[in-house]
Amino acid sequence: MRLLENGGDPATPLESLAGTNQSDVVVEMPGDTPFETAADIAARASRIDIRFPKFRDGRGFSLGAMLRERAGFTGEMRAVGDVLPDQVFFLKRVGFDAVAPEADINDEEWSQAVNAFTVVYQPAADGEETAIRKRTAPHGDQDREVQDRLKKLNERYRGASAQDIIKAAWTELFPGRLAVMSSFGAEAAVSLHLAASVDPNIPVLFLDTERHFAQTEQYRQTLTDKLGLKDVRIIKPDAEEAAEEDAKGDLWRTDPDACCALRKVRPLAYALDGYDALITGRKRFQASTRMRLPIFEYLDGRYRVNPMADWAPEQVQAYFKEHDLPTHPLVDLGYNSIGCWPCTQPSSDGGVRSGRWAGRDKTECGIHFSFGDAPGKVRRAG
């Protein structure tokens, strides 16, 4: 992204083009220009300068993004006016090619601003590969290495106890880079007890969707205290994304896939930086989508460890009884699987997950898919 001195080459003011059909124009327009007007000009412009009257005025960012993403403008786009170095990275993300600030910016300051960030988390007009996409399954030689390791791990630990699998993962396979993912739901006490018996310092990731039952919040504290869990990490959705994508708070009603993406899939993707593997409490009997669940699998650049994959329902209940583990308060009310309150109800047929998204063609939230395949994964533009 180029830094232009003295405002760069002049452009024709937008108002001067009114009523003309001139093509290949170089035009300057303010950031509050109506999109329809800007898009009409963009169709015959080779360069567009968007003026920022004050650095606090973000309308130029929105206009630039819409011209790239909605109007399909492919010419040069410049940000002119009251622009600060701190904004340069974000200007580049929404599609600007150059900046012509009114204030003087020295080369060192400019270089620091341009190179301040090396990772992006949302798709944007600049086409940069996001951190989520970089986490997708490897290719070529690396893919073969991963597949070979998975085969060896699954052969080595076939028939091993869940506790032995967790111990090996924590102390030998992924030391210091392993976490447990828990919903603190109907069967969560078992996997958490197994992990705590190996080391109560193993990090536990809890996705706080801000839509959980009050009983789940209470149960989380009960298990944390009883099991002596030392590192429970509460992961929440991004506040700005939530305000933008679920302003009315009813996204679960209109688009449950998008709601899961906002409140579970993306927060988990961001939270997994620094981990090589994640322990889950999934079991094959829970759903048709889990019938072939292996002990070790690989998703989005890290391993998933499923130490209870081959457990039967009777084993789960026996473990609760043997270790005197408290049950989730909603279990006695017929909830066999417990997620967010808007999308969970008692199981009418006794099925383990039949009370989740009842009446919808949906059985998983998406956190156990590759992020590239998870429904509703991509943040909508604009």
Characteristics of this structure?
382 residues, 12 strands, alpha/beta, six-stranded mixed beta sheet
User: Structural class given helices, strands, pairing?
Assistant: alpha/beta
Number of separate helices: 13
The helix/strand series, from N terminus to C terminus, equals: EEEHEHEHEHHHHEHEHEHHHEEEH
Radius of gyration: 26 Å
Mean pLDDT: 84
Strand order of the largest sheet: 1-6-5-4-3-2
How many strands in all? 12
Strand proportion, as a percent range, falls in 5-15%
Low-confidence stretches at least 5 residues in length (pLDDT < 50)?
Answer: 136-140, 370-382
The termini sit apart by 23 Å
Q: What general form does the structure show? A: elongated
Task: Name the helicity range.
Answer: 25-40%
Main sheet characteristics: 6 strands, parallel
Structural features, described:
The chain has about 375 residues and is an alpha/beta fold. It is built from 13 helices and twelve strands. The strands form two sheets. The protein has a six-stranded parallel β-sheet with strand order 1-6-5-4-3-2. Strands 9-8-7-10-12-11 form a six-stranded mixed β-sheet, sandwiched between helices. Helix 2 links the parallel strand 4 and strand 5 (about 75-80). Helix 7 (about 160-175) crosses helix 8 (about 190-200). The chain is elongated, with a radius of gyration of 26 Å. It starts with a strand and ends in a 60-residue tail after the last helix.
Task: Walk me through the topology.
Blueprint: E1 2-3, E2 12-13, E3 25-30, H1 35-42, E4 45-52, H2 59-69, E5 76-81, H3 88-93, E6 98-101, H4 107-114, H5 131-134, H6 140-156, H7 162-173, E7 178-181, H8 188-198, E8 204-207, H9 214-227, E9 232-235, H10 239-245, H11 251-254, H12 256-271, E10 277-279, E11 296-299, E12 302-305, H13 313-322
Parallel strand pairs: 1-6, 2-3, 3-4, 4-5, 5-6, 7-8, 7-10, 8-9, 10-12
Antiparallel strand pairs: 11-12
